[in-house]
Amino acid sequence: MGYLEFLQSYGPQFVDGAAITVAQMVLATALAISIALSAGMMLLSPNKFVSRPARVYVELLRGTSLLVQLYWIFFVLPLLGITLDKFFAGFIAVGMNLGAYGAEVVRGAILSVPKEQWEAAVALNMSPRTRMARIILPQAFLIMLPPCGNLLIELLKGTALVALISVTDLMFVAKQINGSTYLSAQAFGTALILYYILARFAITPTMRYLERVMARRVGRI
Amino acid sequence: MKIAENNPSKTPHQNRSESPMVRFENVSKRYGDLTVLDKLNLEVEEGETVSIIGPSGSGKTTVLRMLMTLEEIDEGVIYVDGSPLTHMVQGGQLVRADKRYLREMRKNIGMCFQQFNLFPHMTALQNCMEAPVHVLGLSKNEAQQRSEDLLEMVGMLDKRDELPIRLSGGQQQRVAIARALAMRPKVMLFDEVTSALDPEVIGEVTKVIRQLVSKHNLTMLMVTHQMGFAREISDRVCFFYNGRIEEQAAPDKLFEQPQKEPTQRFLNAVFEAG
Amino acid sequence: MFDWRWNFVLEILPRLLLATGYTLVAAGIGYLIAVFLGLIFLLAQRTPYWAVNKLVREWVEFIRSTPLVLQIFFIFFVGPQFGIRLSPWTSGMIAIGLHYASYLSEVYRGGLDSVPKGQWEAALALDLSIPRTYFRIIIPQALPPSIAGMGNYLVGIFKDTPMLSVIGVTELMHTANAIGAENYRFLEPYTMVGVIFLLISLPAAAMVKVLDGRVRTKAGVQK
């Protein structure tokens, strides 16, 4: 069948799959952001009881692959008493993994804020909390945005792995259609194009817009 | 030691050939709407030292960069030692020079930059030897001999095996001068070579340039903010303003009796700042 | 519940270690393909033809922005659709090579862009030819900033090899799956896989940092 016919017959399934992918992405992102911010700040703490656990978490999650972590959460945790629904296991694994990378980005960004800013805040007698919230974080946020844009795309790509624990996302749909029709190029090709559209035409422009908005607010433009 | 390819005599202007060493003929350069150089006519005689001064944006650096073929000109022709530089003769006509022609002509011109631009992964000696070996085709020994002589002249022989990162700004600039001279160019260009240096090391670089002027018959164009130095060593000073030569004269005359108003304003401002 | 059996671990360890060997080979080959292909992707974006540059750029972005596992499936399954049978190994290597080539081309580009413009100008002032400028002046300076990226992606490829298990490549993850299915025990195999990954990737990442520092010093970028 021609490609247009293919799209007509299977289009709806692809859309459903894409919806699940977006859902996974949004939830994983929310989790990743929380982890990145808290772990990132913890990494910077002078208190070893705070920074060490954070460092262990980051190295553990970054040093093993997402797929291994996903399988571990879905197959091994039940043996230790924690059984998760596959949908949950999916975005939790992705969120935890990308959160670890995010923590490093947050830490790096905060450290990149020029030392003079810290000194000026101290000279004005600001409390550490005010200093962090009003002076450092807004500037760090701007520095963070470009690498975070890349991480978001990695997150999107990571959600594809949840298909391997049978979550019915875009990739799962593609696999299914391939299995029943053997039209591999169309099935996987369409999925690739949809992922590309999500990355290039949804994520990237949003990040660029955020960058412009933040730059204006922080006074860089 | 030979620096210039021809005319090892000490006195400038002695062996004047028929045509000037450098000639800008109605040269214009634009960046979009902005005219940086406006029908510039400039001649530099062989062995002459010309300083170019003026406010920023007046086009002074562009003059040097075009002579070094780092930038293309929009109108006019530049001649070096009688032959066209930016154009070539084809069938009795002047056409834009092609890459191969430019590469040949470029050998006659050497340039030193404000930021030195030494190759950071090569020692001082290697920096100097690189072009003579790979462009002029000298043997390693010849290139090494020439480079070491030049490094000695600029006072950097004992540092010949150091990487640039271990050298001070003044030292790096002196190596850069030796590197450019290793090609035995007919024309040497100095683009604000002391502007990036701490005041206390400016002297070591100007000392080297002074030596070049007094001992060798090199044709030199210098863009500089060091008025005192320019006055001391130049044969002629050109004041650039708004893309043209507003005024040019022998240094004493220009500095003491500037004729035009922009020149006077500029000189007043410069000497005000001390 | 929590019932870790050490003797089971010892039993399956040889098989896991053998599979680790395969994984390392797969990662190595994939990386070599990516290093060379990445260079081609980079050069193809710097041709004198604007249309070619733009096309290659979009292609590289496309590969970078879509999931590797999907690309692996694509290459493995699409071949037969057009009459070309690719083995799991071959499809896997091609997919990884392509995917990481696009990452590496960006690393190379960053390295090239980091060389100050003054270096190009100095080379021109000395009348060095274009090839010589690239080989003797620019690339030696573009390499040190690229080392960190190149090293990290090598570690990254190693960590991505489990994706090959989905098309049946007998690397570490696949072997762990098989062991788990055969013995109805997943705790030890999966945990050991995690441990093995950590034992290889963490020291490797540390070595990349050390190498990065050494190369920078030798290139005269830092004392």
Question: Which characteristics define this entry?
Answer:
heterotrimer, A: 221 residues, mainly alpha, MetI-like fold, 8 helices, 83% helix, flat, B: 274 residues, alpha/beta, 6-stranded mixed β-sheet, 4-stranded antiparallel β-sheet, 12 strands, 35% helix
How would you explain this protein's 3D organization?
The complex is a heterotrimer of chains A (221), B (274) and C (223). By secondary structure, chain A is mainly alpha-helical. Chain A has one domain: MetI-like fold (Orthogonal Bundle), CATH 1.10.3720. Chain A is built from 8 helices and no strands. Chain A has helices spanning 3-43, 48-63, 66-76, 86-112, 115-123, 128-159, 170-181, 184-218. In chain A, helix 5 (115-123) packs antiparallel against helix 6 and helix 6 (128-159) runs antiparallel to helix 8. Chain A is flat, with a radius of gyration of 21 Å. The termini of chain A are far apart. Helix content of chain B is 35%, strand content 25%. Chain B has helices spanning 60-67, 99-106, 124-134, 140-153, 169-181, 199-215, 227-233, 251-256, 261-272; strands at residues 22-31, 34-44, 49-53, 75-80, 83-84, 87-90, 93-96, 109-112, 187-191, 219-223, 236-241, 244-249. Chain B has 274 residues and is α/β, with parallel strands linked by helices. Chain B has a 6-stranded mixed sheet, sandwiched between helices. Chain B has 9 helices and 12 strands. In chain B, a hairpin with a 2-residue loop joins strand 11 and strand 12. Chain B starts with 21 loop residues before the first strand and ends with a helix. Chain B has a domain at 120-183. In chain C, helix 1 packs across helix 4, helix 1 packs antiparallel against helix 7 (172-183) and helix 7 runs antiparallel to helix 8 (187-218). Chain C is an all-alpha fold. Helices cover 80% and strands 0% of the residues of chain C. Chain C has one domain (6-218): MetI-like fold. Classes of the chains: A mainly alpha (221), B alpha/beta (274), C mainly alpha (223). Chains in contact: A-C, B-C. The B-C interface holds B 68-70, 103, 106-107, 109-111, 113, 115, 117-122, 130-131, 134-135, 163-166, 179-180, 183 and C 116, 118-119, 121-122, 124-129, 132, 136-137, 140-141, 218-223.
